[in-house]
Write a structure and sequence with these properties.
Rossmann fold, 10 helices, 7-stranded mixed sheet, elongated, 2 domains, 40% helix, alpha/beta
Length: 267
Amino acid sequence: MSDGARVDCKLAVPNPIDSAPIRSPQEVHTLIASKVHAKQLVEIGTRNGDGISCFSKVTKSASAIEYDSEYCRKLEDKSAKEGLDFSVQCVDYNKAVMDADYITWWQQSKLKNRRVLRLLRRQQCMGKVRMNAEAILIFDRKWPTDVKDYHFLENIISWSHIVQHDERGSCELHSKDVDVRKETGFNCDRAFGSFIVAGVPVSGVSKALSGCDEICACGYGFGISTAWPVQTRLLIILISLLFLILLALFVLLRVVHRLKKRGARKN
């Protein structure tokens, strides 16, 4: 296994299929690869796989989540033919298994940072995502939506790096493809510049995204955090049920007492 701190994704993937800004720059991939070295990784929205082709060379395990059937087929073929060590989940990320040390994506259309972070935190509360999981987010400093989102999430970001990139040559070649030119946000002016790569511990996702002090306590019936041990939750539920039973008995005794008093008056 290669040393993740030294891998250069431009060398590891010398003939990428896509170009920035259709996908995140390879310089960004290089930084992410250094973070996920010998770790378990999930990438959401893998497209043609330029990123995960590099990541999977250094990770302990890697999984690509891609709901587009055409891209999904290409990823499966790519993994098999090139002997790359990553699995493919051909489903919407809402239905995918996202438990890993690191989960990464670049937001677009329905794949929004805040929405995915909320989902990850709720899955963590339900025991479906490990407690030390971290999201790696990327922000194009030339894309207003990314810049706005970075500032919104800044208070829960644990680390960040600015990465310079330049893929203008590759972008000009891709711009000749009519289908590529139709892609939202495609503009070769965005093929160079800088990105922010940032880490967000999933366990730190709370009030900033939910409006609740603790997202695990929101929307779970009794308001009991599903991050608590099973024994603790069961004890609280049993105590709550016992309280309700005692309250019902108290009300019943009051009713019986009143009925007896009325009967006594009539006699």
